[in-house]
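User: Could you walk me through two proteins back to back? I'd like the raw sequence and the structure tokens for each, with a short line separating them so I can tell where one ends and the next begins.

Assistant: Of course. Protein one, sequence then structure:
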Amino acid sequence: MMSTKRFGALIAGALVPALMIPAAAIQADAASAVRISGVQYDSPGSDTGSNYSLNGEWVKITNYASTRRTLTSWTLRDTSNHVYRFATFTLGAGKSVRIHTGRGTNTATDRYQGRGAYVWNKTGDKAILRNAAGATVSTRSW
């Protein structure tokens, strides 16, 4: 059974009747400032398996905060448990980074998993972003 919390308010000297709000709604976590903001799970063109094609699939992560965020040891994974772990990395305020499937040179805006096979399923999958403590902070399903 869902518990509720009772709230009353004092307005102009009178107590307004208590409002019943489910406790689960009160305890819900605020959205993370760092979230998955886009997914390209089907690389454009033919799926040739080339590095160019592999890098055509990516997950975009955006920092919506007004301060930079350290993503060192954060992970990005799918439902088949393909895991990408951020090495030392900081995402600037209001900035985004794309995590590509194939190989490449890491920059502030593009990171590479170094895989030789596609990760994201076209028929349905889920990208899961977890912080360094292992808590899920953002997901995107299709």
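----
Protein two, same layout:
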Amino acid sequence: MSKKSFTGGIESLLSPQSEKPQKRGRPKTQTKKVEKSSEEGTKAGETRATFIVTKDLLEQVKALSFWERKQIKDTIGEALEAYVKSKKGKLGAAIKEYREKGR
């Protein structure tokens, strides 16, 4: 068994650290301006949202995502785009009313 070396003594434990320890992992390369905390860690044009769904529906979405080798967010995005596209006739009025009264 090798001996441990405790250089610096108790003084190094009690004195304030002059340098912050370096973080591990891949360096952040994102340069987008974050306007809301829900946008932290996302790509440009993306935001984070939380929805409540049934357990069965979530399992089905996860299974389809797995089967198609896609991320869950991509599968849900495609489903939402298809739904919005199916409502194209009502979309303009819905957006207008939402912006006036919904926010």
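The mean pLDDT is 84.

Let me know if you want the two compared in more detail.
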